[in-house]
Amino acid sequence: MSVRPLHARRTAVIASTILALSGLAACGGGGSGSGGGGACQDGKVKIGALLPLSGPAAAFGVGLRQTIEFAAGEVNDAGGIAVGDEKCKVEIVDYDTKGTAEQASTGINKLISQGTKLIWGPNLSQEVTAVQQIAVRNKVLLMQASFSQQGLSKDMPLVFATSTTPSGFSGPMVKWFTETYPDVKKVTVVIPDNQGGKDTAKINDEEYQKAGIDATVSTFAEGTSDFAPFIDRLLRDDPGAVDLASTPPGDAGVIIKQLRQAGFDGPVGRIGGEATSAIVKALGGDPKALGDFFYYAAINTEKPSVQEYFKTFEEKYGEEPLAVSAQVLPGARLMLKAIDEADSLDPTKVAKALEKLPIDDPTQGKGVWGGKEFYGINHEIIVGFYGGRYQNGELTLTPITATTE
């Protein structure tokens, strides 16, 4: 298998879209709004996209933005969503969080002020932490994509996770890792020194320890440009493998490149979100530069239904989506379907409808609602995934069953 080529025009397109949609939203701020429940807003169902569209995490945010754009396009091509007596088209209202808590907080308040209370995002743990209480106070529905350990809760019944979180995949992935690399007894988990990094690292570290592997967590400062001192410290610990966990793709590419240049030929991987294609892009596009690389593979890009999604997206928008876009596609479709099922834009009614919808996606297949044991509420979309391993540029995928409690 090979990594599908990616194109780099999305950020520029999205930047112009932000300005255009912001203008539309400002003109349509009156009326009942997305939170009013009874009617559409200027004949539209407005979905807020609160995502990092620029900065180190843009590869995630742009991918999620592609997903909601595609799902909205499917609905609009079919005539829109019926809400009451209206047939309404879906419109996406962007706000670029830049990956920061401050911008996420500003963004959700702006979206609420425009009457938009159905929100796709945020993406990062620090963003989710910044907006949660604002969302609760204002009865906003969030389809968040973070790995925050506090991202879901029975006290936040309007918050959902768009994909399987580490609580569902870390344990099964570490079990696969021990079977794939039986001689590795020491792993260093590398993360940025922020909430998102720590949330993922904590779970991964615990799973490695439970599997009998000596795991340590090593952090680097956000915004680091020279990783040479960090790589030196990392290698002095003599790890058998390095897990980049939730390290952003751009930083991950630099770390892998410098590890290989320093002579480290052991396994390097990423038991974190779907980002391998973006990491390969950061390495110049050649998967051989990964060396022996293991990772949580949320999707199989060779699966016919996934290939069909890539093909359809490219035909419609002129370029291929990022891999993470296919991962969260079930969540986007379910969110829009729940609005139709609820026959309302009231976030509470939409949430209740969403809870009852089965997960049976034409691209990703069947799944279940999980998260009860870890979060206290079954608001996490769980579908099957894979243990991915690159060797000399060749990919092997091993199907893995997620934890569903």
The CATH homologous superfamily name of the largest domain equals: Response regulator
Number of beta strands: 16
Could you name the CATH topology of the largest domain?
Rossmann fold
Give the uncertain stretches in residue-range form. Answer: 1-36
Overall outline: globular
Query: What is the overall number of helices?
Result: 14
> Biggest sheet, open or closed, and with what strands and sense?
7 strands, mixed
Number of domains: 2
Provide mean pLDDT, rounded. Answer: 88
Q: Which H/E pattern describes the elements?
A: HEHEEHEHEEHEHEHEHEHEHHHHEEHEEE
CATH classification, class level of the largest domain: Alpha Beta
Rg over C-alpha atoms, rounded to the nearest angstrom: 20 Å
Describe it for me?
This protein is an alpha/beta fold and 405 residues long. It is built from 14 helices and 16 strands. It folds into two domains: 10-164 and 304-363, Rossmann fold, CATH 3.40.50.2300; 166-297 and 387-400, Rossmann fold, CATH 3.40.50.2300. It is globular and about 65 Å long.
